[in-house]
Design a protein that fits this description.
With 385 residues, this protein is of the alpha/beta class. It contains twelve helices and 13 strands. The strands form three sheets. A seven-stranded mixed sheet has the order 3-2-1-4-5-12-13, sandwiched between helices. The protein has a four-stranded parallel sheet with strand order 7-8-6-11, with helices on both faces.
Length: 385
């Protein structure tokens, strides 16, 4: 028996979350078992309020705009949900005739996805997860849609800063990248060298305790070789005791508004070494930039959206669509359904094999893993110096 399909976004947007929305809508339109397509406006909060919008009849020309639109076109949220909230969703599903529920998000959203699935036990409602996170910290899947575009952004942006510093080498520049507990985006800055620039010089990830003395030693050693230095650090750096090196400005549930780590590291250089330093913090620009979208990322985002719909209609539930990398020199991935319980709030961090011995850079193994995700060569740069 046919039924209606509901799309819900959760957590922070990415440059390609709307590409997954596009893929899911396009696939749903092709499925005879899907009657109407609804979107929860404003994430789970919109769902609980019954703020569901029928988007079945949106034309193809408008749908194509999703591929060029940053943020979430249907709105997202970071609602903290309790058991009663999940139970309250069932009457909404019944009122709108929802048979298929697709949750698009990261670790927290997959946790929500699993709990909605549990609340729907005993009904014919099918629940499916679509991965999304710029942080790339969802377990099991090789990578998550959203990461590759953020990686391309940080790599090219850091290359541009390196070229600037190479032209006028008078200071240490510290660039702060997003990533709460996992350093995937920060690490991707190493791909800046593919542009032909000399840098970044130092990379600090949250997977390694940050040591102030060692950091000063690292910067001093680079300054002995050249007068302009580029450092990339993660917003989530902690010390040996697991405390943030800069106290967070605000915490709410799993959400943390980090302090200005890059400014702190720049100030350490000024105070300890007496050398000019400045900080840069791209922040939300890194996840909203459509200019730097990876074509690979966009196509994979569409693919997981489509596969989630196909799987639901075929009778699957309580799963997430994962991207699994095939072996071989040529980059290929396949989609695979995994139990959503295997990814509920499980964070995937950078493995030791991807971090250099001193903890101030990445290995060639990481660079080789990351490079195909960027979706083509980064622009080459030149210096006559």
């Amino acid at each position: 028996m046919a039924g209606n399909l509901l799309l819900v976004h959760g957590g922070g947007p990415t440059a390609v979350i709307n590409a997954s929305l596009y893929g899911a809508i396009c696939q749903a339109k092709e499925e005879a078992q899907v009657d109407r397509i609804y979107a929860a406006i404003g994430g789970t909060g919109g769902l609980l309020a019954g703020n569901l919008k029928d988007i079945t009849d949106v034309g193809q020309q408008q749908l194509e705009l999703l591929l060029h639109t940053p943020g979430s076109a249907i709105g997202t949220s970071r609602d903290e949900l309790e058991k009663e909230h999940y139970e309250a969703m069932l009457p909404v599903f019944e009122r709108f005739g929802i048979k298929y529920v697709l949750m698009n998000g990261g670790n927290g959203t997959m946790d929500t996805c699993g709990k909605i699935c549990q609340a729907c036990a005993g009904t014919d409602i099918r629940v499916m997860g679509i991965p999304k996170t710029m942080d790339n910290d969802i377990a099991v899947t090789d990578h998550a849609p959203g990461f590759a575009s953020a990686a391309r952004y940080i790599a090219q942006s850091v290359a541009e800063v390196c070229a600037d510093v190479q032209g006028l080498p008078i200071h240490v520049v510290v660039i702060e990248a997003c990533g709460r507990n996992a350093g995937w985006i920060t690490a991707a800055s190493a791909l800046a060298r593919d542009c032909g620039v000399d840098g970044p010089d130092l990379i600090y990830l949250p997977e390694r305790p940050f040591d102030e003395e060692r950091y000063i030693e690292d910067v001093k050693a680079v300054l002995e070789k050249k007068r302009g230095v580029v450092v990339v650090c993660s917003e989530g750096l902690t010390d040996k005791d697991g405390k943030n090196i800069v106290p967070p400005v605000f915490r709410s549930g799993r959400s943390t508004y980090f302090g200005d780590v890059s400014a702190h590291l720049a100030m350490l250089v000024i105070k300890r070494l007496g050398y000019k330093a400045r900080s840069e913090k791209p922040g939300l620009i890194g996840r909203a930039s459509m200019l730097h979208v990876s074509p690979v990322d966009q196509q994979e985002a569409i693919a997981v959206g489509r596969e989630a719909v196909r799987a639901c209609v075929a009778g699957e539930s309580g799963k997430m669509v994962a991207l699994m990398r095939e072996e071989g020199e040529v980059y290929r991935v396949r989609t695979e359904l995994i139990d959503v319980h295997d990814v509920m709030l499980h964070e995937k961090k950078m493995p030791d094999s991807y971090i250099n011995e001193r903890g101030n850079g990445v290995t060639e193994a990481f660079v080789n893993w990351c490079r195909p995700l960027l979706g083509g060569e980064l622009p080459k740069m030149i210096s006559f110096k």
